[in-house]
């Protein structure tokens, strides 16, 4: 799509409004809506001015003038607008059109540029598996004298004794993987989400109920290049939330909204290609994975404690990443083993060769998470980090059934966001290569997370503390 193509689309679809999206540093879409009469080819060059000081992680009020530069390749009709509205994702620049170093989308694009200039590969492909919950209701409050949260789902196991709307087809904890209707009460809703994504030009491979009770779901996307896939992830979140709202339900991508059942991850499949050649395939090798693919894994696992500051960037992420449970907390690799942090899906098709990093979750900003993973993998290739020699496996056993002695030899991911941020402060040179990330952005990220999230959680009394200590 070119600007001229977008303007033609506007005329043909009788578009009345244009929605311009930018992403803030933590990873939430923000938007402004412009009447179509104000859109021309010049808009795609000159951009639309906005106040950058109002976006989390961006500039202070003393230097707040910024521009949204629409990317014509992202044009799609918004299926939720009451009047015909075109959606466009934007890059952020300063008033002189210099790309803004704290714009997550610019960082993703710099990572792709660095890859192409490295000579290692021309392109990377990304296929995240986003899990989420569809609840019927949610309540939460945090005040000086009280704190609470409550979620509900008609298919939740806790509804088995409910006197209202109880037909007995609740899903038991950890038994939600692939049940049919009527136990899977959300199949039609997920189908509507898929059809809506398809109407916006997004390819979907499948959808299904996930393991947890209470409405856990997954919709799998067809792979794409790094920045385009990050755009797609944001559209995915927008679509699932709005389709659910249409039906009086609510979607959350929190990694761990329920205690005692599976959390929601974002397993990220990734591969490198040069021209038409997939670089991760070598027939007859372990898992048919090439040496270059092994080095890429070596980079991911070597930098995993720091990577998690971007791939698992919420305090809630670490409610999911608990040793001994379903989440892959073990810093090892394996073929087909879902208890390892990195899994190599077994395939005899060179074009399907890839690695899967299973630790991330969807609280991440996809532009930053994908860029950071790529930079770690490339560092492994550049430094020829062999994960076997580095002690990362392969481990082809169920790690949860290993002996205590065997488990002691396996490193686990950090146990908290604070620990991951400390690891990022110690280990981030690989992110600075090619100017993809810079010290200013990394310092901003760490400070924002500590001040606005970690401190907020640490300073408030927790309901479980009343259960434990009230009568002490």
From TrEMBL:
Protein name as it appears in the record: Glutamine synthetase
GO terms assigned for molecular function: ATP binding; glutamine synthetase activity; metal ion binding
InterPro entries: Gln_synt_N, Gln_synt_N_sf, Gln_synth/guanido_kin_cat_dom, Gln_synth_cat_dom, Gln_synth_gly_rich_site, Gln_synth_I, Gln_synth_N_conserv_site
Gene Ontology CC terms: cytoplasm; membrane
Domain of life per record: Bacteria
Binding site for L-glutamate: 262-263, 320, 326, 338, 358
Family: Belongs to the glutamine synthetase family.
Gene name in the database record: glnA
Native species: Candidatus Hydrogenisulfobacillus filiaventi
Pfam families on file: Gln-synt_C (PF00120), Gln-synt_N (PF03951)
Residues of the GS beta-grasp domain: 13-97
């Amino acid at each position: 799509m070119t600007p001229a193509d977008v303007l033609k689309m506007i005329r043909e679809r009788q578009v009345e409004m244009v929605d311009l999206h930018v992403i803030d540093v933590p990873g939430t879409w923000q938007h402004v809506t412009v009447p179509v009469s104000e859109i021309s080819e010049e808009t795609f060059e000159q951009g639309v001015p906005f106040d950058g000081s109002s976006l989390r992680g961006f500039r202070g009020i003393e230097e707040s003038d910024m521009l949204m530069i629409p990317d014509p390749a992202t044009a799609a009709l918004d299926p939720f607008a009451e009047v015909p509205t075109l959606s466009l994702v934007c890059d952020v620049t300063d008033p002189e059109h210099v790309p803004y170093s704290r714009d997550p989308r610019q960082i993703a694009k710099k990572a792709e540029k660095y890859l192409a200039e490295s000579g290692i590969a021309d392109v990377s492909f990304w296929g995240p598996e986003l899990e989420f919950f569809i609840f019927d209701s949610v309540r939460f409050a945090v005040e000086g004298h009280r704190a609470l949260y409550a979620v509900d789902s008609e298919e939740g196991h806790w509804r088995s004794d409910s006197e209202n709307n109880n037909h007995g087809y609740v899903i038991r904890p950890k038994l939600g993987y692939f049940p049919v209707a009527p136990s899977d009460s959300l199949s039609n809703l997920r189908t509507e989400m898929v059809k809506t994504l398809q109407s916006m030009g997004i390819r979907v491979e499948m959808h299904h109920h996930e393991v947890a009770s209470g409405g856990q779901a997954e919709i799998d996307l067809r792979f794409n290049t790094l920045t385009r896939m990050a755009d797609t992830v944001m559209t995915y979140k927008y679509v699932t939330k709005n389709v659910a709202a249409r039906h009086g339900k609510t979607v959350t991508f929190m990694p761990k909204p329920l205690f005692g059942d599976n959390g929601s991850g974002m397993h990220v499949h990734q591969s490198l290609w040069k021209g038409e050649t997939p670089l991760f395939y070598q027939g007859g090798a372990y898992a048919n994975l090439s040496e270059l693919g092994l080095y890429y894994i070596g980079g991911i696992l070597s930098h995993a404690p720091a990577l998690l500051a971007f791939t698992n960037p919420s305090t809630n992420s670490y409610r999911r990443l608990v040793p001994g449970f379903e989440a892959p907390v073990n810093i090892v690799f394996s073929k087909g083993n879902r208890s390892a942090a990195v899994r190599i899906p077994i395939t005899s098709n060179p074009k399907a060769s890839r690695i899967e990093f299973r630790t991330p979750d969807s609280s991440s900003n996809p532009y930053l998470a994908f860029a950071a993973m790529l930079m770690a993998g490339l560092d492994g290739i550049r430094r020829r980090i062999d994960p076997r020699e580095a002690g990362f496996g392969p481990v082809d056993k169920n790690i949860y059934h290993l002996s205590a002695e065997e488990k002691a030899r396996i490193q686990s991911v950090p146990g908290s966001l604070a620990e991951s941020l400390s690891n990022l402060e110690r280990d981030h040179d690989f992110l600075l290569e090619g100017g993809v990330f810079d010290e200013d952005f990394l310092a901003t990220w760490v400070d924002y997370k500590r001040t606005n999230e970690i401190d907020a959680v640490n300073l408030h009394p927790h309901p479980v503390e009343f259960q434990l200590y009230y009568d002490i």
